[in-house]
Amino acid sequence: MAVFKPFRALRPRPEFAAPIASLPYDVMDSEEARIEVQKHPLSYIHVEKPEVDLPPGTDLYDPSVYAKARENLDKYVEEGYMEQDSQPMYYIYRQIMNGRAQTGLVGLTSVDEYMAGVIKKHEFTRADKEADRIRHVDACDAHASPVFFTYRHTDAIDSVVENVMRQELPVYDFESDDGIGHTLWLMENPADIATIQSAFAKLPCLYVADGHHRTASAAKVGLLRREQHPDYTGEEEFNFFMAVIFPDNQLKIFDYNRVVKDLHGHSKEEFLALVEKKFVVEAVPDVDEYQPTQTHEIGMYIGRTWYRLIPKPGTWDAANVVASLDVSILQDNLLHPILGIGDPRRDKRIDFVGGIRGLGELVKRVDSGREVVAFAMYPTSMDELIGIADAGKIMPPKSTWFEPKLRSGLFIHPLT
To answer: Strand 181-187 vs strand 90-97: parallel, antiparallel, or unpaired?
Structure first.
């Protein structure tokens, strides 16, 4: 079964929702965050990246940073910008980007189910990133931003959500600076809540879509609190963590592209000759951008020319769900053997560009000389993501890019 509980969110009063809502901590650097709070003084970036309120150059992992996050979160309450709901409920959160809507439910998922693998993941996490979020959650005494989950859609859940959206007025409804619409409804009716909770209990599992580090950290804070409270019952707030859960058929994964700084000692001609051993290589002249149109098709930009790469038969194991991914085929047949990039997580010669920034970013970076070659990927599908998670496998790094990003600051889960 999948545990999914209603809760009492700490959230902005309606008139402050738009000025408070912010992008998550991991999509901007400190300098961008400082600009953000200058434009939007109430931005929740004060909690997500509290170094904006400390002297420039402050170590991002200094204890003062986490203490400032807690201080700033408390200020939202003390100064009347946020308040906690009086009763547990679910929250319906809809985002609209370029006319496409995705509607999720906000509630609590289980630490025990994450540890047991009922909540399935598809990425490795790094200990240093986990440690940062553990300290942030622990200092704030709250899950200050949600994780992003998905599930195999069911009519039972869809019908309740659609009915509430049709009958109730939203408490938030605004458009952020990037043109994305954000709307929040409260699901307060006990019968609706019971139906949703029962429907999730019938699901065999949930899936982490985005936010693996936040998920792992939230679970580990729960385990830490259990050590601190050995008489815990299992019902305390720290046994659960906040998630926005979207049905799989509403999510869109964007391409996650690659750029490489050099050709590992090869000339352009030598490099292309080596690539042709594993791929059918076709020049695509007279185009500014080349977007792959199907799986097992990769775009490559080098020397102001786009090429189409089609992996030759036998260059990947079709029976292996991970090896069949385009990002794996590129890594196993080109990035590693030709360009010497054995560990893309740590190799400084490779960088990753989310598809939301457009293929023009790849062209710009190569033409500027910052990188030498770029690869445009066909997006990983939701079926591939779920299939890999079901198989207990791990995707290569930077395989998925979800948009739109969840806004932080619209709902917070206090742990006490």
So the answer is: antiparallel
Closest listed residue to residue 149, CA positions, set 218, 245, 214: 245
Give the DSSP letter of residue 340: -
Q: In what order do the strands lie in the sheet with 100-110?
A: 119-120, 206-210, 147-151, 240-247, 100-110, 90-97, 181-187, 172-175
Domain locations in the chain? 10-252+403-414, 256-378
- For residue 27, count other CB atoms closer than 10 A to its CB: 12
**80-93 burial string, b = 16+ CB within 10 Å, else e?**
ebbeebeeebbbbb
pLDDT digits (tens, 9 = 90+) for 150-172: 999 999 999 999 999 999 999 99
Q: What is the pLDDT of residues 310-339, one digit of tens each?
A: 999 999 999 999 999 999 999 999 999 999
Measured between alpha carbons, how far is 147 from 111 in angstroms, rounded to an integer? Answer: 13
Distance CA 52, CA 68 (A): 10
Tokens of 373: 């070659």
The CATH number corresponding to 256-378 among 1.10.287, 3.30.70, 2.40.30, 3.30.1760 equals 3.30.1760
